[in-house]
Amino acid sequence: MTSHTEYGEKTNASEVVEAFSGQIKGKTILITGIGPAGIGGEAATAIASQGPALLILASRTLSKIEAVAEVIKTSYPTVATRALVVDFASIKSVREAAAKVTAYPEPTIDIFIHNAGLMDLRQEHRMSVDGIDEHLAVNFVGGFLFTNLILNKIVEAGRIKGEARIVIVASSASPISPIRFHDLNVEKAATDVPEEERPNLTILEQLRIPTDTKYIPFVAYGQSKTASILFAVLLGELLKGKGVTVNTLHPGAIRTELQRTTTDKDLGASATMMYWKTLSQGASTTLVAAFDPALKDKSGVYLEDCQVKQAMPFATDLTIAKKLWKVGEELVGQRFDI
Ligand SMILES: NC(=O)c1ccc[n+]([C@@H]2O[C@H](COP(=O)([O-])OP(=O)(O)OC[C@H]3O[C@@H](n4cnc5c(N)ncnc54)[C@H](OP(=O)(O)O)[C@@H]3O)[C@@H](O)[C@H]2O)c1
């Protein structure tokens, strides 16, 4: 249960940060996926209004980070910001960025919000530089590696202050696909993978999204978001007793650059069926996950519209999560024993 059961899809970011101001003041907060037109930039600006000690703004495009930092500097000149460039589609880039974070003078990171994400609905299937399906690479593998590499600073915050949080922005697209352990790169037709790994094509058909191709972009996106929830669930378990919680959420449907490769036609009936949140409303669920005191000591929580909801069983099963963790380790070529 959250502190504000009255919050919902129309709750604005400003309302949330004002309510949880005491949780923000003086904190060191790292947010990924920063741009002026996205949820990350909106969340960062809302957080800045409540006086954090330092906002580390991470993303792959420096000019977009700088645009958000400029807004913060103009409105909240006493808030310190720092830019961190990282491409989550590249294992090398993630390692370089994580090394920078490790070398920062601040010994702790209180809140890590992993918001960066990609949805590429073009029919041409793209792989990362490391040969991984681009959705899985950006939405899971890059974050898996980055989080593990910077974890010491978050655990240190948990140890010294008794509380640190990791928040991973997932999506309501998770129910579309479980993890395809036999076809991680989403190259086989739906019927060519074991039954328990097949996508839920009914959801897509109901939304009138074409399912007659071997590569269905929504399946790749769905799998990658399922992976991000599974990662959070297991990481939360592994960090129990260390003062660090790990939770996930769906921010809602918000018109951002997430739809940059997409038209409303690609989104099928969902484009007209959904309530499109404003950017501010789209940032609030992330902010509840990051700051609501009622979630202190709680891991494995999944939120939608600022309230606790249930994610799919295939996205919360610890056995599947452990199997995926091993896949993550193999893909990045490093073991992480917590
Ligand atoms: N908007 C929605 O309706 C919706 C619904 C469900 C879930 N979400 C999730 O919410 C999060 C934020 O999305 P958004 O709507 O704000 O979309 P957005 O405007 O496209 O923001 C995504 C952010 O992630 C960054 N990013 C993308 N690929 C990256 C990479 N390889 N390395 C580093 N950064 C990368 C983008 O940087 P560039 O701009 O420089 O590419 C951008 O800053 C995502 O995780 C998304 O999946 C959004």
From TrEMBL:
<dbReference type="InterPro" id="IPR036291">
    <property type="entry name" value="NAD(P)-bd_dom_sf"/>
</dbReference>
<dbReference type="Pfam" id="PF00106">
    <property type="entry name" value="adh_short"/>
</dbReference>
<protein>
    <recommendedName>
        <fullName>Ketoreductase (KR) domain-containing protein</fullName>
    </recommendedName>
</protein>
<keyword id="KW-0560">Oxidoreductase</keyword>
<dbReference type="GO" id="GO:0016491">
    <property type="term" value="F:oxidoreductase activity"/>
</dbReference>
<dbReference type="InterPro" id="IPR002347">
    <property type="entry name" value="SDR_fam"/>
</dbReference>
